[in-house]
Design a protein that fits this description.
The complex is a heterodimer of chains A (about 325) and B (about 550). Chain A has about 325 residues and is mainly alpha-helical. Chain A is built from 13 helices and two strands, in the order αααααααββαααααα. The longest helix of chain A has about 40 residues, at about 230-270. The radius of gyration of chain A is 24 Å and the shape is globular. Chain A starts with a helix and ends with a helix. By secondary structure, chain B is an alpha+beta fold. The model of chain B is unreliable at about 1-20 and about 30-40 (pLDDT under 50). Classes of the chains: A mainly alpha (about 325), B alpha+beta (about 550). Chains A and B meet through helix 2, helix 3, helix 7, helix 10 and helix 11 of A and helix 8, helix 14 and strand 16 of B.
Chain lengths: ~325, ~550
């Protein structure tokens, strides 16, 4: 078990270094931050001065070595755009993104699972057909378009929900939450629905197909033969076995949602990490981009690690293999 | 707004009616009316904008976004009135006792936001700060060597070289409190070298009509009215009591926020939505001429263009080719179709608010395809040639480039527009890696010299600033001589004449080809008034919100 985790950790570190290296080499193509830090009317002398002071005049590998060295100490440098430490900026934005992703995930589970069960049980009912066709919209429409539709309907026409921002936030230690004010709760609705649209449909379709699969298995037939009620068969026996892949997918989706909240955050001006990243890209703010990509890489690696470990715990066959291998 | 107020008011009265006598109702109604009148005449402004300032340090970055905010917080010795005329501001008067000295009499009784008095010490300190190595605002006191305190309310500005248009420059020289800077260790402008943020990049202490109370980068910045502002009795003053600046990057979202009434003011509505905004029942559009000119420029130095099919020679070196291109560009159509009317076609690189502008230099070569074709034929390109036109990906330059390509195709010059993200664009043209490019230029000093020196003086590559943005490397001894004369001439009249000569010379030789001056739209809640000055800074104290 320990050897397994240690091996995985080692692989994770390699993945992180690779992410950092690829990210860093891409930055050579995003453009010159100095051109954006200074007005076009600035003099060449000004530009050289700034470039030198930022260390941008040094060769690529030197910049990368300095970056890794500092990153290991948790120091990601200073944002070229905002002039503040990157680690501080990311720490400020993290709560906003996590709250948004949390609400979206909750929404996905609370809507996706019941609707999935419903469409599986009432397979041929017209309402299931409507729901399934409707879910195609969630799969096929791009995120930003859904966001803009929602803004037009709920902010411009009906005027009931705000079109952008996070409302008023309350500071709980280092964590700023929008859940304690009315405006904060109102503000999270549209972005969370936008972000949750895809996972809702994904989970719904997954639950449905798993449920249909499980309902055909022998032990369900056997349970029915025993004369158990429909309710006991569906929710006691079938649903439990359906949820295993759902948990896995939700876990992996969580990482995806954090990483791809970028678009939703841009549309709704949600002050999370994704928005910070997009603005950094436009400004060629290399320290922020590098730190963000490393952080996202880290989140993915961690989630994968946890999922792998969970498999190890859940699936007895994996354990058997290692212990028998050890026995030989 | 009326409707919003009336709704809850009626509801409240209806609810309370069974419990209240007639007199109480009318008293209540009176109170509500008084309250309503109070709201109508003093209002907070919610302001959404695409980009927000990176720093609040008044001497650190010379960027439009920073200037838009700080113009409300910090003030200079000279100011501009609502017609953009130069007026005394923190200085009451000025004189020039000798060629090397400007003497400013300061306004008495002015206080900084923290309550400390404004004196000559603050001016001397701010000059030092703006001249220090990290400052990007050196141009705001061009030619100044130092400041010297004469008494509490008199300052001498000592020049190291004469600058007859010092006042134009000084309009954006902002005064910071010395005692505050000492107390908060903000003696020097923010420096990226130190890799740390400074107090003055997050906090402010000016003398202006608004004070920064909340600063959350990328989320919001809040300003409130300065109750002790020296100029609060100004007839130009409007009804804004507080300003909330909300950066909203996405164009559609920003517009939705304005249409839904969540914000009152957007200073950068996307150009494709102008028509829609004009038709919207709850929006007023405010137009102003920004002192920014879009122009084309040519590689005038290489013997063979980098991006063209003409080998062995550079067609742009022939002035007839440049004239042909000028004749082939229909600035009126660009104005109507690309800019949706929001442009003023121009024949010169500076705008009417700039010192040295003259009408007879502001003449375009007329749109005339036949003449253009004849000129090309004369120059030896009867069947035209191919060339790549570089443009930044921002709007409107990208659209302008795409409009220019078919115009030049009519005279058989096949232009391939190469639209590059802004960050890469400047990097590319700063390396002279271009044959033909579109750039926009504004004159921050509101004086022709800076523009002439940067765009038309021969490229020097040193710290003199000569030709710094002359990416086509145009070089003319005659032009260089004129610009050098402008630099040292202390007599404004003679100087204006030299500027006129230089602009006329530029029109003859066409090293750059001005297209138009941009008109800039602001969108506000219906019935509101505001003044859009040529520097495109919203001075909130001149706003009246309905």
């Amino acid at each position: 078990m320990l050897a397994f985790i240690a091996r995985r950790l080692l692989q994770s570190i390699l993945v992180m270094l690779t992410v950092g290296f690829i990210a860093f080499s891409l930055f050579n193509f995003v453009g010159d931050p100095v051109a954006l830090m200074l007005p076009p009317e600035a003099t060449q002398a000004d530009r050289d001065e700034v470039r030198k002071s930022l260390g941008l005049d040094k060769p690529f590998y030197t910049q990368f070595a300095v970056f890794v060295q500092n990153a290991l100490q948790g120091n990601f440098g200073i944002s070229l755009r905002l002039g503040r430490p990157v680690s501080q900026l990311l720490a400020e934005r993290l709560p906003a993104t996590l709250e948004l992703v949390g609400v979206a995930t909750l929404l996905a589970l609370l809507v996706g699972i019941p609707v999935g069960i419903y469409t599986a049980l009432k397979r041929d009912h017209w309402s299931s057909q409507v729901l399934l066709t409707g879910s195609l919209i969630g799969v096929s429409l791009p995120n930003f378009l859904i966001g803009i539709f929602l803004i037009i309907i709920f902010a411009v026409w009906l005027g009931v929900l705000p079109s952008f921002g996070r409302g008023d936030t309350t500071q709980l230690g280092f964590w700023s939450t929008g859940f304690l004010t009315v405006s904060g709760l109102k503000a999270v609705v549209l972005p969370a629905v936008t972000l949750g649209f895809y996972p809702v449909t994904l989970i719904m379709r997954l639950v449905r197909s798993e449920m249909l699969e499980v309902l055909r298995t022998d032990y369900i037939k056997f349970a029915r033969a025993r004369g158990l009620s429909n309710q006991a068969v569906h929710f006691g026996h079938a649903l439990k076995n359906t949820l295993v892949p759902v948990i896995t997918i939700t876990g992996l989706q969580l990482g995806g949602l954090i990483a791809f909240a970028i678009i939703t955050e841009t549309v709704f001006q949600w002050p999370g990490m994704g928005l910070l990243f997009i603005q950094a890209v436009q400004f060629a703010d290399i320290p922020v981009m590098a730190a963000y990509l490393c952080l996202i890489g880290f989140i993915f690696v961690t989630i994968n690690l946890i999922v792998d470990t969970l498999y190890y715990v859940v699936d007895p066959r994996l354990r058997m293999e290692t212990s028998s291998a050890g026995g030989h | 707004m009326n409707k919003n107020i009336a709704g809850p008011q009626n509801g409240a009265i209806r609810l309370c009616a069974p419990f209240l006598t007639r007199t109480i109702i009318s008293a209540l109604a009176m109170m509500v009316i008084t309250f309503w009148v109070g709201i109508c005449c003093a209002k907070p402004l919610r302001y959404a904008t695409q980009d927000e300032p990176q720093t609040l340090d008044p001497h650190s970055a010379n960027l439009a976004v920073t200037n838009r905010l700080l113009g409300n917080v910090y003030e200079g010795l000279v100011g501009r009135d609502k017609d953009f005329k130069m007026v005394p501001w923190l200085a009451l008067s000025w004189s020039q006792p000798d060629a090397k000295t400007w003497r400013f009499k300061l306004r008495p009784g002015v206080k900084f936001h923290d309550g400390s008095p404004f004196t000559a010490d603050d001016v001397v300190f701010s000059i030092e700060r703006a001249l220090s190595a990290n400052s990007q605002m050196k141009a705001s006191i061009q030619g100044v060597a130092s400041g010297k305190k004469i008494d509490d309310l008199t300052v001498d500005v000592v020049m190291k070289e004469p600058n007859p248009v010092l006042l134009n420059h000084m309009f954006f020289f902002r005064i910071m409190s010395k005692s505050w800077a000492i107390k908060n260790n903000a003696l020097l402008p923010q420096n990226y070298k130190d890799k740390e943020d400074t107090f003055a990049s997050r906090n402010t202490n000016g003398t202006g009509p608004f004070m920064v109370t909340v600063r959350q980068p990328d989320v919001k910045t809040e300003l409130v009215q300065n109750p002790n502002w020296w100029n609060k009795a100004s007839p130009e003053k409007g009804n804004i009591t507080a300003v909330t600046l909300l950066p909203v990057k996405n164009n559609a979202t920003r517009l939705a926020a304005l249409l839904s009434g969540e914000v009152d003011f957007v200073n950068d509505p996307p150009s494709q939505d102008i028509a829609r905004l004009r038709a919207a029942p709850n929006i007023t559009m405010i137009l102003g001429a920004e002192s920014r000119v879009q122009f084309l420029a040519f590689d005038l130095t290489r013997d063979e263009l980098l991006y063209s099919n003409v080998k062995g020679k550079n067609p742009f070196k022939d002035v007839r080719v440049r004239q042909a291109i000028a004749h082939a560009i229909d600035a009126e159509t660009i104005k109507l179709k690309v800019m949706r009317g929001l442009a003023r076609p121009t024949g010169t690189i500076i705008t009417p608010v700039d010192q040295g502008y003259s009408k007879d230099a502001d003449i375009r070569l007329p749109y005339n395809v036949a003449r253009a074709k004849a000129l090309l034929k004369e120059a030896g390109y009867p069947s035209g040639f191919e060339v790549t036109l570089d443009c930044g990906a921002a709007q409107p330059p990208a659209d302008i480039c795409q409009a220019i390509a078919p115009m030049l195709a009519r005279i058989d010059i096949k232009v391939t527009p190469n639209i590059v993200p802004t960050a890469n664009y400047f990097q590319k043209i700063q390396k002279f890696d271009t044959s033909f490019y579109l750039l926009s230029w504004s004159t921050p000093t509101t004086d022709a010299l800076y523009t002439l020196q940067s765009l038309l003086r021969s490229y020097s590559g040193d710290s003199s600033g000569n030709g710094d943005s002359n990416y086509g490397r145009y070089s003319s001894a005659q032009m260089d001589q004129l610009i050098d004369k402008i630099r040292i001439e202390n007599d404004l009249k003679k100087r204006d004449e030299f500027i006129r000569e230089a602009l006329m010379l530029a029109n003859d030789q066409l090293p750059i080809l001005p297209i138009h001056q941009q008109l800039w739209p602001w969108a506000m809640r219906k019935g509101s008034t505001a003044i859009l000055p040529p520097n495109n800074v919203p001075y909130f104290f001149r706003f009246n919100l309905k």
